[in-house]
Design goal:
The chain is mainly alpha-helical. It has 9 helices and 2 strands. Strands 1-2 form a two-stranded antiparallel sheet. Helix 3 crosses helix 9 and helix 5 runs parallel beside helix 9. The N and C termini lie far apart (61 Å).
Length: 267
Amino acid sequence: MEAFEKLPGEINHLVSSFSSIPVVGDLMTTGITQYTFWLIISSLLVLIILFAFAKRCAVVPQGRFVNGVEFVVEYLENDVGIGILGKESWRRHFPFLMTLFFFIAINNIVGIIPGMKPGTGTISVTAALALVAFVYFVGVGVKNKGAWGYIKSLAPKGVMFPLNILVWVIEVISTLLRPITLAVRLFCNMFAGHIVMGSFALMVSLFAEPLIQQLSLSNAAGALPGLVFAAILFVIYAIEIFVGVIQAYVFTVLTAVYIQGAEAAGH
């Protein structure tokens, strides 16, 4: 069919649209790309949500908004804060972890809205987030044990020489790879999800295009497959919202695990 013949070219155009395109200025100077623009919008939205929650929060929460945000905060507190970091230290790190979760989740959800691009849809942003998490948990380890003490703590206890040196090298490499895995995991999940959604949206538009141009019985019959793709697209949208929140949660949980490991006395 004609719609399927046009699909490869449209998908190539779709993929190219996810490159960093400046909306203000240019990339060589101080331009703002589409990802930077929506990153700023998402950041403002995070601030609005948190300030609105803080203003309306009371001993007895009222309203769906306050109850919804409080549910998320309490879940992160119990499952990530206390559950991973423990009752003694979770309060010190919870503001950072909560901010990290909301920032990533809002960016992911905003990017699902048609016409918008998520800040987390580019590797440079996810790499920056991973670098912040890396600096934070390494800083926690250095603060608790000192620079040399943290480096030595990567070596396992109870392992005889020279095997302990080999394991220490592996642990150092594993620690250095953590920001890379954090960045790539988040980026790939968001990028792949948007390509899938865009592909189904293209199928809907390609099948509906003849009917829009000319209303006829044959064009109406030809547009019927587009209804199937539209139904699938709505399901994918719901899944992508869930995936966006899950990816924010996974990023936050892994950061909490790394912080807990940095605070531990040693392996």
